[in-house]
Amino acid sequence: MNVWVYDSDDKLNEAGAGIISGIVQTNPRAVLGLATGGTPVGIYKQLVGDFERGMFSFRGVTTFNLDEYVGLPENHPESYRAYMNEHLFRHIDLPSGQAHIPDGNAPDLEAECRRYDERIEDAGQLDLQLLGLGHNGHIGFNEPAHALIKGTHVVDLAEETRKANARFFPSLDEVPRQALTMGVGTILKSKTILLVVKGADKADIVRRALQGPITTDCPASLLQTHPHLVVLLDRAAAEKLS
Ligand code: F6R
Questions:
Q1: How far separated are the first and last CA of the chain, in Å rounded?
Q2: Cβ(41)–Cβ(87) under 8 Å?
Q3: All domains of the chain in start order, with CATH
Q4: 71-80 pLDDT tens trace
Q5: Is the CB of 102 within 6 Å of ligand 1?
Q6: What is the pLDDT of residues 18-56, one digit of tens each?
Q7: Atom of ligand 1 nearest to the CA of 36
Q8: Which H helix or E strand runs over 112?
Q9: Ligand 1, atom 4, residue with closest C-alpha
Q10: Given ligand 1 and candidates 9, 13, 32, 39, which is best to mutate, with the most ligand atoms within 8 Å of its CB?
Q11: In what order do the strands lie in the sheet containing 192-197?
């Protein structure tokens, strides 16, 4: 694993965007796994700036997002589809048919999960999976559990996750209780994993994830087994690493 620690948020975002754009520059048909949440916003902003400066094109790229809430209309400002449009998709030349997000409003959610896995399978292995980290160690919405699920599945969000995400909603009550998430099997099959974590409130879980025992109680700890894991941390998130 390669761990990089940054004093400046701008430098961290530049590094994250640089890793993603490097993959697209070397392989214009790259398959990218994308994340939402507060953490990658600056990376997407940097990526959009680099795209506008003509550094690369997303025309041949295919993307798969990690997750989507169940039951939020697609145009709800907090749906992950709306988030991706706002922060990335509407600014770049990625054809809309190549930007995949699981449909949290599908009439048959189980069938939707199978369809999503088939799409990923058809696209081939993910070249890169971008990840943030939940306070409880979740990646995607794979919450701590006795056993973890390989493929895309419906998940009951942990109370801790709903509370953390309540900052984006008018009230906790409005945070959905379920989501669709890519499974850890798919995440771990990605050729490269780029984990980005910011903030002192994540310092404990960063230590557990990167230096603690490998356990399904901390799904991110499974990343320790990945042959090509790159971790970008700000100084506060790295504080408790030995
Ligand atoms: C988002 C996702 C989540 C977040 C995590 C951290 O698509 O899958 O695992 O990465 O909850 O969220 P933030 O970045 O808001 O702290």
A1: 15
A2: yes
A3: 2-234 (3.40.50.1360)
A4: 998 889 999 9
A5: no
A6: 999 999 999 999 999 999 999 999 999 999 999 999 999
A7: 7
A8: helix 109-123
A9: 132
A10: 39
A11: 2-6, 229-234, 192-197, 128-131, 31-34, 62-65, 99-100
